[in-house]
Amino acid sequence: MEDLIRNFLSNTDDSLTALSNKYEQHIANLPSWVLCNRKILIAQIKDAEFYIIRIIPDKTISSDEISSRTILPAEVNNFIIPWTFSPGIDFYKPPQNYFFEIADFEFGTLNNSHMYTKPQVSLHEMLIYTTKHQAHISLSEERAKKDSLDLWNKALNQLPRDGAFSQQVQTIIDRFELMIKRKNFVERKLHRYINSYANFLLPEHKKVFFEHALKLGKEEQVADFILQTNKGFPAILIELESSVHKVFKNKGELTTEAQHARFQISEWDRFISEDINNSQGEMNFLKGPRKRLVIIGRGLENYDDMIAHFANYTDTVIWTYDVLIKEAKDRINKRISEDAKLLNFANVELIN
Fold it and tell me: How far apart are CA 203 and CA 225, in angstroms?
């Protein structure tokens, strides 16, 4: 078991080191038990193949220290203080695939003013309950790489540590798809939802400016979204219209709503061109080339043309919300696949 846990932690650290290259600022969002020196305490229940493992970060040691011991069932609660073990698992007859872990857990209480006090329990460690059979699966090199991909993507996108990354993102996109199908969902709610999950739903960007005011003389327009992209790439102006509107008439011409959206976003572009105050300070990136993207309606019928026009960024490009969602899924899956390839890991879970 000692070699198994050492290899698991080493593979996890190595994988996270590779994934975090050039993005080291997000290491702060990772769990406390990775990329550090740890005291590793392993307890085996006497005459059983049931193990309890504590992985405790320790700043005072220069490398991982590991120790093993055998304990009786009655000694379990002393070993896992401040936790207690709930009755129910027979240490001598546990399910063969039993594996349970908890990490970086804090628990506080409400005071008289209904505000949370300093946590009464603060567990900055990893606690594992497992059987010998399941440990060889759950602490394997493959599992270490899979967990590292999950931990890193949650850290990179500042998502909660509970729950798999792919499942969390799938929920974000599924909820968005349901929202655009509801005719009574006002645009402002869609706007706020997209802003909350811009890293997943909007085209790739460096920074997002939501409901940004643009001025020209005494006139003012509010851009739904302005995206700052990487240096050398065009900024992106995004106008969101209702998902219930159609993009084209029967003869292939743009609908009145689509034409209005094109006019609206061209006005934003004109304001930027004619008033240098709109491209000062942190908005200096607007002095360069700019794409104009309108998102309106549903469907994927003209997907190839919509994507091709966006790549060329000529005039104003129109996407439907379904195109936005498909592009989001493809972009996220590409990123996950590239990370998995970096770790030489094939069994990766993608977004549907």
Answer: 11
On whether residue 342 sits in a domain, the answer given is no
pLDDT 10s digits, 244-262? 898 988 877 889 999 999 9
Sign of CA dihedral 111, 113, 116, 119: negative
* Domain-terminating residue out of 163, 184, 214: 163
User: Does one domain contain both 133 and 210?
Assistant: no
Kind and range of the H or E element at 125?
Answer: strand 121-131
pLDDT in tens, 275-322: 999 999 999 999 989 999 999 999 998 888 888 888 877 689 999 999
CATH number, position 242? 3.40.91
Where are the alpha helices (H) located in 141-216, listed in sequence order?
141-156, 165-181, 187-196, 198-201
Residue 148 pLDDT class (50, 70, 90 cuts): very high
* 327/323 Cα distance (integer angstroms): 6
Q: Look up residue 95 and give its DSSP letter.
A: -
In angstroms, rounded to a whole number, what is the distance separating the alpha carbons of residues 243 and 189?
Answer: 12
Last residue of a domain, one of 98, 133, 163: 163
Domain that holds residue 127: 2-163
95 and 198 both lie in a single domain? no
Tally the residues of the chain. Answer: 352
Cβ-based neighbour number of residue 181 at 10 Å: 12
Q: Are residues 230 and 259 in the same domain?
A: yes
Q: In this structure, are residues 168 and 160 in contact, taking their beta carbons and an 8 Å threshold?
A: yes
Cis omega (within 30 of 0) on the bond before 160? no
